[in-house]
Write a structure and sequence with these properties.
Residues 20-238, 427-633 form the MacB-like periplasmic core domain. It is a multi-pass membrane protein. It comes from Pedobacter vanadiisoli. Keywords: Cell membrane, Membrane, Transmembrane, Transmembrane helix. The chain is an alpha+beta fold. The protein contains 25 helices and 26 strands. Strands 17, 18, 19, 20, 21, 22, 23 and 24 form an 8-stranded mixed β-sheet that branches. A hairpin with a 2-residue loop joins strand 4 (101-107) and strand 5. Helix 2 packs across helix 11 and helix 11 (322-359) crosses helix 12 (370-395). The protein is elongated, with a radius of gyration of 34 Å. 38% of the residues are buried.
Amino acid sequence: MFKLNFKIALRNLWKNKVFSLINIGGLAIGLASCMVLLLYVAYEWSYDKQFSNHERNYVVYNNSEASGKIFSWAWTPGAMADEVREKIPGVAYTSHSTYPSNYLITYGEKKLKDQAIFTDPSFLKILDYKFIKGNPDKVLKETNTIVLTKSFAEKLFGNEDPINKTVKLDNTDVLKVEAVIEDVPANNSIQFDYLMPWSLFEKREPWARDKNWGNNMCLTLVQLQNTNAYNKANEAITGIYTRNQKDNGNKALLFPMDKWHLYSDFENGKSIGGKIDQLRIFLMLAFCILLIACVNFMNLSTARSEKRAKEVGVRKAIGSSRQSLIAQFLLESVLLAVMATVVAFALAEISLSYFNNLLNINLVIAYNDWKFWTVLFALMVFTGLVAGSYPALYLSSFEPVKVLKGFNIKVGSSVSIRKVLVVFQFVFAVCLIVCTTVIYQQLNYIKNKPIGYNKGNLVQIAVQGNLNTESKRNLLSEQLVKSGAATNVSSFSHGISEGGNNTTSVSWPGKNPKDDILFNQRGIGYDFTKTIGTELIAGREFSAKYPADTNSVILNEAAVKVMRLKNPLGTVIKFWGTDLTVVGVMKDFVVESAYQSVAPMLFYTSSRSGASYILVRLNPSVNISSSLAKIDEIVQGIEPNFPVDRKFVSDSFEEKFQNEKLLGTLSNWFGGFAIFISCLGLLGLALFMAEQRKKEISIRKVLGAHTGNILVLLNKDFIKLVAIANLVAFPLAYIIVNKWLSAFEYRIPISALPFIMAIALSVIIAILTVSIQSVKVAKANPVDALKYE
C-alpha cells in the first residue's frame, strides 16, 4: 500500500510542477532559515558547557549597594578564593584569576602579544581543558612558568617541542613552558592564549598581595562537590564580606557559570536575563518562518482542492477509507518536506560562511553529531506533518456523490481559512518590518547621540615597557606634537570606552552619612579635555604649571550634581583617606554604556596612578595614514621592544553596539526571508485564482474591459488581505518594540515612520507579486479561453 501511495504522490508532484516547485522553494527557505537560526541558538546555548563538571562550576558575584541601587559584578578580592575554600561547606575547588589582558611573549625573534591570565593550579581543575603535553598535577605551582594553548604554541615554536623551553614576558621575566593545552573554544566566557601563575602576578604587582576586602580585583571560580551543595554554600557565602571586614556591606553570591553568558544582566542583585532574551527572539523567529512556509503549503494545497476533488470522490467510491486518504496526502507533504530539506541543507551550508563573517563566530554543521541529525529529521517530519495536516483533513472530507456530480468552491470555510492564513503570513512579515526599522532607529539614535567628546580622529595607544615611566610619556607627547602627526596628546588610566574602577570611598563636606554614591575614578594626563574634545564647565585641568596637582581632583557634572555642591571649586574631598582639592568641573562624557546616563566621575592626575593608554588627537590637516605611520615610528623609537598597540577610539566605541547590530541584521535578513516566503504563497494563490477566473476575465475583455480594470479586479482582494494584516500587526508590533525599548534609559519615541514603511512595503510587494501573474492573464487572448464554449 505504501509503495502505491508513494507512486501516486510522485505522480501528483510531477504533474503539478509549478505548485510543487513553489512549495519546495518555500519550505526549503523556511527550513534553511530555521536551521541557521537554531545552529546559532545552539552555539550560544553551549557557552561554558564543554567542561566535564560544568553544572557544578560557579562564578562568585559581588553585590554592592550604592546610589540607591544594587550593582552586581564578577569582581572579587584576591582573598576570596582561599576564604571560600576554607570556610564554605561543599566546596571542591576554588580559583582566583585576573581578567584576560594582553602581554608580550618573546621567543627568539618572535614577538606575540595575546591574551593571558594569571591564575592558580585549581583553575585547570575547575575548567578541565585537555592536556596535550605536560603534567596536569604540576602546572602553575612554580612562579616563573607558563602554560600555552595549542595554537599559541604553534605560532611561537612552530614544529618544535615547547616543553621546558623558555620565553620572556614583557621583556623582563623568563618563564619555562610547563604544558600545552587544547585551544579555548570560542564559546567560552573566559578567553586566553596562555596561563601564568598567580604568584608571578603578585611578584609583578606587589599590591595584589594585600588581602584588603575592599579591593575587588579578580575573578573567583568555585566548583562544588555536588549540585545539592549549592543552597547551603550560597547561603553561607552571602555574608563573607562582612565577616572579614565589618564595615563592608557587600554581599556575595554563587552564580552558575554555564548561565553566565546568557543571564549576565542583573537588577537589584538578581539576574533578570541578558543574551537569553535575544536567543528567545531568534528561536521564535526560526519557528515562525518555518510556520509561514507550512502555511504556504496549506494555502496552495487547499486552493487546488477542485482539481483533487474528483480523485478523492473516485477513490472513496471504490472503497478507500478517509484514513487511507489522509495517509496519502500526508505522505505527499512529507515527501515534499524531504525534498525541501535536501535543498535547505545545501542553502544552509552555502550561507554559513556569510553568516559566520557577519556574526564573527564559527558555526558549523556537525556531520558526526547524532543530535544534529536527530533534530534535522524531527524538523523535517514536523514540517511535513504540520504542512500537510489541514490539507489532508480538508481534502479527505469531500463526499463522493457531491464531488462526482460537480464540485464548486463555496464561499465558506476553505476560502475564509485561506484568507486567514494569508493574513497570518503578512502579520508576521509586517511585525518584522516594524521591529527591524525601530531597532535601526534606536541604534542610530544612540550612535549619533552626543557622547560629550569627539571620538573621530582620536587614537589610543597601549602603554608598554618604557612608556610606563612618566618622563617617557612626556617625551612621546612632545615628539608627536612636534612631528605634526598630532595636535594634542594626553593619557588615561583605562581605555576611554572601558568600564571598571568604581569606588564608594569618597566623602565631602555636607555629605549625608546615609549616601553611598558610586563614583567612576580615572587617572588623566595634561591637556586631557583638549585631546578628547570635551569641555571644562568651571576651573582648570591638570597642568605641568601646577606641581601640587597630585593632590587635586576634577569632577564631572554628574558628580557635582549628586554631591549637591553649589561652589565645587576649592572644595576638599576625601578619596581613599587622602584629601584632594577640586580644581575643575568637566562636562559629562560617555565612558561605559552609551545606553545609560553618565555616572558620577572623579579624575586625578596620571602621575599618582600611572597610565594604561596614551590618547592622541590626529592632526586634521595631515593625511591619516601618514600620521599613523609617523606615530608608529616615534613610539617604536622610544620603546623598540614592544609592537605598537594602537586603536581608533571610534572602533572601540562601535563595539558597544554589537548585540543591537546583530539583532537588527538578523531580523533584517530573516524578515526578508519571511516576506519572500509569503510572496511565494501569494504568487501560488494568484496562479490559482487566475486559472479559475480565466473565462470570466476573457468575457470581461470581450465586453470592453481594459488591462488596468482587470489588474484592479485581480489585485484588490489580495490588497484587502494585506491591509487587514497591517491592521492586526500594528498593535502587536507596537507592544513588542515598546517592551524592547523600555530596557534603554535613552530611547527613541515610537514614531509613525516604521508603520508607514511597513504598510507601504507590504502593499507594494503584494501588488508586484500578484501582478506578475495578473498581467499575463489580463493580456491573454480571450479566444484561447472561450474557443471551446
